[in-house]
Amino acid sequence: MVLTSDNKFSEIYERIKSDSLQGVESILILVAKDCDSIAAFKILAEILKSDSISYGVKPVSGFEDLQKVNELLENDEIKSIILINCGGAINLIETLTNVNDQFFYIIDSHRPFHQNNIDGENTLVIDDGTYEEDQNIVNGDTGEYIEEESFEEDEEEEEEEEEEEEEDNSDSDKENEDKNEDEDSFDEFLDDDYDKKKEKKEEKERQREEKKKEKKEKKRKRVMKKKKSFVVGGRQSKQVERSYYGKSAASLMYKLSIVLQKHQLEGLLWYAILGLTDQIIHERITIEQYQEQFQEYKSQVLNQYPTEDEQLQNYDSYVGDKIQPIDDFRFMLYRHWNLYESLYNSRYISCKLKLWKANGRYLLETLFAMMGIPLDQTKQQYVSMDTNYKANIKQQLEFHARKFGLDQLYYNSFIKRYESCKEEISASDTVYAVTALMESDNLESDGTTDDEIWEQNFWEAYDALSDRNINILKIGIEQSKLLQKEITRQVASMIEKRIVILSGPFRYAFITERSDLKFFIHPLALTKLGLYMMDAFLAMNKQQKPFLIGALNEKKNNYLIVGLSSTQKMDIQTNEFGKHFRKAARITGATIKYQSFDTSVIEIAKLDMPKFIEQLHGSLIS
What molecular functions are annotated in GO for this chain (predicted)? Predict the structure, then answer.
């Protein structure tokens, strides 16, 4: 069954409480391998502890780990199983076969939900309220998605794309004409009619922008219409399979804490913010969805924590950790790095300036010069920079950055000030650090299995969110910087060596050099590289196409593959690769394994790769 009403959260929690046994771990919590999942688990753990309820925890990285949970289910004392970001989209009835009387509670941001989980008597899918609106579900009999797109819609899309292309060309011509007019003579600025001409030009610009917005909205509605088509009760309609994400699991757990009036427990709001930040960093939601939830959390933050003005008026000094909403820079980890490296390795800046070229690096140094910051200062640790230069960074960037096409340098975020060490760490820095800790490279450790290593990494990442373990978080920040430098280097190398292959409807590239492999045999690291590469192609005026990025795991003799359908430059964050992967595997006989609970992330044997790619090409064309 599916829960869509927040006011029933208390009923669910009361059921979990009533099924719990005093002094016995009757609750088993399964937690996926990402920052949102850890944040959601942190919230749930604090709620359970506040009621003295014991629980057991098992991290799960993928489908195989979930199957191993069957051994734990033989324990009759386990009554409730809570799955965080690891159960909604797969058939739990077929996966967990040792179930007795246990009840499953699914808190999962992956969409769509599997129909058998929705229909199951012993399963409860806790939804974010979008299920009734969307109902993009899997066929319960076959586990496959029903697909029947009309050619009319395809033709309509093609016609609109042609119209857009024509209009873009027309706009470009007009822009050139406008530019020529502007350059004709400086005397125009002294002309009495200049203001009228300027107003007329601005009005034309507004009209062009409105037309573009209308087309975007029309396209968005059409995609949403396709997503909502499905088969239920024998009634057939159209559906396109697209995997996508709902609200973060941490946001659902935070809602539970509000319903139970436990949201004032220490750290809960910060964990909810981290869940949201994890989604935007890994591009699981749109910028619009992020902004909507940001405003909700901003209100919560302003209610819980006094502003600096309020503190001054009340003459009270707030004691303890403090969260504040901020307009943060879009260059990563700059508080813990130097300004040059931060800008150079940030995807947005790098792609805008094309920093893989010598001219791009010249532009970056020119920007610093125009800002009046000496190059040696940009290469100092940010905390050690001359305060005069540091204080003027935002003002100088606002004045000069637009000349370089850098018109989206800020985004809404949050920062946490730690009372214990007087340090400031932003939500994005924390997510980067926690993710790096989970995917750190320890594969050369002697006598330790891969499963043991990643579980150790999971618990390190979990501990890093504790205020008492800020040193672990700092280790994660250093690992994240190292990874980001490698991603930037790899993008430059892929462009220079031209290893990205255009295969009709999509692009693909594989990393096989031994020195590079250790960084990219992890799903989220490979995802970051793929998204960076897609933006680089857009920066080079290449057509937007789905991108498949793979890394050879020599130890397993297979490839880890991530399929990416779009970046945040697209209106809707959906991914169709899961369907095409299954189809290609079925036709070629290749065995694929799911490395995470995202169907667009798989492992495939090295020998199967050539025929798999060939079939994938055919599948995407058809």
Answer: chromatin binding; DNA replication origin binding; single-stranded DNA binding
